[in-house]
Amino acid sequence: MGPSKIPPLTYKVVAECSVSKARAGLMTLRHSEVNTPVFMPVGTQGTLKGILPDQLIELNCQILLGNTYHLGLRPGIETLKKAGGLHKFMGWPRAILTDSGGFQMVSLLQLAEIDEHGVNFRSPFDNSQCMLTPEHSIQIQNAIGADIMMQLDDVVKTTTTGPRVEEAMERTIRWVDRCIEAHARDDDQSLFPIVQGGLDVPLRQRCVSALMERQVRGFAVGGLSGGESKHDFWRTVDVCTGYLPKDKPRYLMGVGFAADLVVCVALGIDMFDCVFPTRTARFGCALVDSGQLNLKQPKYKMDMEPIDKDCECSTCKRYTRSYLHHIATNESVSCSLLSIHNLAYQLRLMRSMREAIQRDEFPQFVTDFMARHFEAEPVPAWIREALSAVNIQLPADPERTDDQKQSQAKTEKRRETATLAEDQVASS
Is 362 annotated to bind ligand? Predict the structure, then answer.
């Protein structure tokens, strides 16, 4: 890189919470500026299901995510090169982040064999063999032209214990050096290493320490949201943000539930992605502060209110819950309408957190949000513990009757089931 050239990624912390580890920042990339904390919608195959790029721009989405493994298979490197990269290919003028394909080691494990050289996949489309090495992952991502690229990492299921966890962490460190060596477009694209180490605190610390020795512009935290307990989840995030440098962006991979986003911003994370908002839309569900509205339920048949009267998305401006109930899961347009709302909700949530941080009112924002989100049930213990660790103390829950306690137990069971199901399809 020439001395007078502007780096392809600059990051500036513009405000910090005086109580927690939350911060608001500005990340400047080749294709757009990105305000953090930010949620990145997932366009696995170079498209978001049911949403056009122009609609994303109308929602003021600044960055989205594509999947290296899937784009490498279809349309492939040569097509992407001829198109001039994914931005031109899909008609998206703003920033793109690509993951490396490493997650597919877990999600497609029955199709993959892993060794020091790389990952040998059997294509789910035509059964052909595909060797994804660190070098090949970077070659695909250079052809995609993403503003931010991920190293290929050795990913194991979060609940794995024993020597395989350390092996994967050490291999991830070795592979990042191969990725850096193979990276041919450092003037235009920034490569993030990925912190691994399972739920083992010393391994996470060792990994962060080793990765910080590399000349990189940001860091990702991987290997979570895979079925581990929420207590282990937040503690691992907290450990990583406690050791990562403050002057570079921190990306937590695969996290998208609203309460998780709020907690992890408090813990010091800047960037998130998840298929959840668009996936749950395909099942007829709309996101609101209190959780989800399952618009397939009969109670919405005569409900002439919008999903959220305070939401300014095109769906809420034009359509009622009754209409959306009428078409939910039966008409393909319902996926589009609910996806637009759900992404608008996620992006508005992130904007609200940024503004609260800039006003130095983030703890009050968190308190108010949790009161709305858990209006009908107690705040889960893990959330209280996570927030307490960064000096945010939530008020005590009101006393509840035995019936309410039984209802809460059922709700927590449903939440746990939904979380595990979401973890299993996070690459869809």
Answer: no
Residue recorded with tokens 């994967």? 168
Q: Is 406 annotated as a binding residue?
A: no
Strand bridging mode 250-252 / 148-150: unpaired
As given in the structure block, the two tokens for residue 386 are: 């996570």
pLDDT (tens digit per residue) in 121-169: 776 667 777 788 999 999 999 999 999 999 999 988 888 999 999 999 9
148 contacts 192 by C-beta, under 8 angstroms = yes
The candidate with the shortest Cα–Cα distance to 41, out of 67, 72, 71, 7, is: 67
Question: What is the sign of the dihedral through the CA atoms of 302, 292, 423 and 34?
Answer: positive
Helix orientation angle between 258-266 and 381-389, rounded to the nearest 10 degrees = 20
Instruction: Please report, for the chain, the start and end positions of each structural domain, with discontinuous segments joined by +.
Output: 10-273, 281-359
The amino acid sitting at 17 is C
Q: Is 54 annotated as belonging to a binding site?
A: no
Q: Which residue, among 386, 97, 360, has the nearest Cα to 252 in the 3D structure?
A: 97
Report the half-sphere exposure of 47 (CA within 13 A, side-chain side): 10
Q: Is 153 marked within a binding site?
A: yes
Residue 1 half-sphere exposure toward CB, CA atoms < 13 A: 15
Closest CA to 148 of 95, 106, 194: 95
**Distance of alpha carbon 182 from alpha carbon 141, whole angstroms:** 11
Sign of the dihedral through C-alpha 95, 100, 105, 111:
positive
Rounded Cα–Cα distance for residues 412 and 382 (Å):
12
- Among all residues, which ones are annotated catalytic? 99, 273
How far apart are the C-alpha atoms of 200 and 194, rounded to whole Å?
15
Do the Cβ atoms of 57 and 94 come closer than 8 Å? yes
Task: Confirm or deny that 316 is annotated as ligand binding.
Answer: yes
Q: 196 labelled as ligand-binding?
A: yes
Q: At what angle do helices 201-211 and 230-243 cross, to 10 degrees?
A: 30
What is the number of other CB atoms lying within 10 angstroms of the CB of residue 299? 11
Q: The tokens of 289 are what?
A: 């502060």
- For the domain covering 10-273, report its CATH number: 3.20.20.105
E-assigned strand segments in 266-343: 271-274, 285-288, 291-294
pTM: 0.92
- Could you read off the pLDDT of 342-369 as tens digits, one per residue? 999 999 999 999 999 999 999 999 999 9
For the stretch 214-273, pLDDT in tens is 999 999 999 999 899 999 999 999 999 999 999 999 999 999 999 999 999 999 999 999
Rounded CA-CA distance 71/227 in Å is 26
Distance (Å, whole) CA 368 – CA 372: 6
